Automatic annotation (TrEMBL):
<keyword id="KW-0808">Transferase</keyword>
<keyword id="KW-0472">Membrane</keyword>
<keyword id="KW-0812">Transmembrane</keyword>
<keyword id="KW-0328">Glycosyltransferase</keyword>
<dbReference type="Pfam" id="PF23452">
    <property type="entry name" value="HPAT"/>
</dbReference>
<dbReference type="InterPro" id="IPR044845">
    <property type="entry name" value="HPAT/SRGT1-like"/>
</dbReference>
<dbReference type="Pfam" id="PF01549">
    <property type="entry name" value="ShK"/>
</dbReference>
<keyword id="KW-0732">Signal</keyword>
<feature type="domain" description="ShKT">
    <location>
        <begin position="398"/>
        <end position="432"/>
    </location>
</feature>
<dbReference type="InterPro" id="IPR003582">
    <property type="entry name" value="ShKT_dom"/>
</dbReference>
<dbReference type="GO" id="GO:0016757">
    <property type="term" value="F:glycosyltransferase activity"/>
</dbReference>
<dbReference type="InterPro" id="IPR056508">
    <property type="entry name" value="HPAT-like"/>
</dbReference>
<dbReference type="GO" id="GO:0016020">
    <property type="term" value="C:membrane"/>
</dbReference>
<feature type="signal peptide">
    <location>
        <begin position="1"/>
        <end position="24"/>
    </location>
</feature>
<keyword id="KW-1133">Transmembrane helix</keyword>
<protein>
    <recommendedName>
        <fullName>ShKT domain-containing protein</fullName>
    </recommendedName>
</protein>
Length: 477
């Protein structure tokens, strides 16, 4: 079919093409870095589920570093969890013999960029112990070629002390505080990296080579700020310096985004897009640490431990409290709303993990009553937490997450830089009246449908779970 465009319609067609091209250019390629271990498998299940729930435009790919022996032993069924790029293991440095697992992080990115260059213009690098909870859009971060977004890692003191002189002596001092103090020679960033793919292609090999340089630096132990390294030892955080020094070498600089990534139980400065569950955290008397679950096997079907407990090795993790059982819920009407939102984000982390595991089990396990009971509870709890989070965020969005918001607003940035200011300076720009426009995250409708199908197969009614009718699989049940 031939489409004839009149001269009068030509400007409209050109405008439409520009809009479509701009939209495509905002898609994001997410690289999620893992190894071949059982520990990484349950984290991958969780990331795949959280990605689906955010509806992030673009693509996601697990970049998985494996030795030849690990790859031969790996369960190929698990390669279907999400699109996967298998990279070689970089953990043992071929030149120095240094056995350092963190070499895999830059090594994985180098291999991925070399052998599977992303179609999307923007790249987001995430660790294995992270969950997505909101979309990333380049316009919300003022990202461009040469300018990336990341989280503040202020303990990287080597960007401003003698360490930089040993590795990047030719980099001039920075005269801004966008990602660290005045006078630094590298940015103090980490956690996530969001940048143009061309910049990542430049940074990645320098990230890897500079990591080796810092690991082999005999003075790095005293200059890095690593609290755990012994005198004369090799700092564990060498890879972090490899990144920031490598980025400086590549001419890529960063802006801190303090609210984008949050550790559970930390007070949120804004609405996070990523939860990083890398540390032990508590919600009232409930505690969780990912390091308790190296032997958790997400592929095991029922029967599971009953009740589920803190050190269960299959099924789901120990369920946390329900929202209305939190101490902060009872205080939220008396000025404790911030504490309640903080605790909800911690709850959301655990309930997302458990809902993700159940989504996986419902797709791969044979019908059983325990599967129905445990997963109905887990998915119901996840959904209730989502409703509570959404309600709190309607109020939480009426905040400025940058101290310079009012200054920028007076300078006209609310109109000149709409996407960024709408994301970070809603109060200063007078946008709080539009809170009802917040788009709710999708419910796990596919997971609910699988539960309903399972109940029908078993010939039983769907169990009912709520704080007033707890499951027998709840703690103490």
């Amino acid at each position: 079919m031939t489409i004839h465009i009149t001269k009068a319609l030509l400007p409209l067609w050109l405008a439409l093409l520009l809009v479509l091209r701009a939209s495509a250019n905002e898609d994001v390629a997410i690289a999620f870095l893992t190894d071949c271990s059982m520990y990484s498998d349950w984290q991958t299940v969780a990331m795949a589920f959280s990605y689906k729930m955010t509806e992030q435009p673009g693509s996601i790919k697990r970049v998985m570093c494996c030795t030849d022996q690990e790859r031969q032993r790996y369960n190929d069924q698990l390669l279907g969890l999400m699109p996967t790029h298998v990279a070689p293991s970089f953990a043992i440095n071929p030149r120095t013999g240094d056995n350092y697992a963190a070499y895999n992080k830059p090594g994985a990115v180098v291999d991925w960029m070399a052998r599977s260059y992303p179609e999307e213009h923007w790249v987001l690098i995430l660790d294995s112990d992270m969950l997505l909870r909101n979309k990333f859009h380049p316009n919300n971060y003022n990202t461009s070629r040469g300018w990336a977004a990341s989280a503040p890692y202020t303990y990287l003191i080597g960007s401003a002390n003698e360490l930089w002189t040993r590795h990047i002596p030719y980099i001039p001092a920075r005269n801004d505080t966008l990602a660290g103090p005045y006078g630094r020679h590298a940015d103090q960033v980490g956690g996530f990296f969001f940048m143009h793919r061309d910049d990542m292609q430049k940074v990645a090999p320098l990230w890897l080579s500079t990591t080796e340089e810092v690991r082999e630096d005999p003075e790095a132990w005293r200059l890095s700020g690593d609290q755990y390294v012994q005198k004369g030892g090799k700092p564990w955080i060498s890879e972090m310096y490899g990144y920031v020094f490598g980025a400086a070498k590549a001419g890529v600089w960063h802006r801190w985004h303090k609210s984008t990534m949050l550790y559970p139980s930390y007070s949120p400065p804004g609405i996070p897009k990523v939860m990083h569950y890398g540390l032990l955290f508590s919600i009232d008397d409930y505690k969780f640490d990912k390091h308790w679950h190296f032997d958790f096997d997400v592929t095991v079907c029922p029967p599971w431990d009953s009740p589920i407990h803190q050190h269960s090795r299959a099924g789901i993790f120990e369920p946390p409290p329900w929202p209305k059982d939190l101490r902060s819920y009872k205080r939220k009407g008396r000025g404790g709303g911030g504490e309640y939102y903080r605790d909800l984000l911690s709850l959301e982390t655990i309930t997302t993990l458990n809902a993700a595991f159940c989504d996986f089990h419902l797709r791969h396990c044979p019908p059983s009553q325990q599967l129905l009971d445990v997963c109905t509870m887990a998915v119901t709890q996840y959904t209730e937490v989502q409703w509570e989070v959404q309600d709190e965020e309607l109020h939480y969005r009426c905040k400025d997450t940058e101290p310079r918001c009012r200054m920028w607003a007076k300078a006209g940035e609310c109109d000149k830089n709409v996407a960024y200011m709408n994301e970070n300076c809603r109060e200063a720009c007078g946008l709080c009246s539009h809170l009802s426009e917040t788009t709710p995250r999708p419910a796990p409708s596919e997971t609910f449908q699988m539960l309903q199908k399972l109940a029908s197969t078993l010939g039983v009614e769907m169990p009912v779970h709520s704080p007033d009718n707890p499951s027998v699989f709840m703690p103490g049940g």
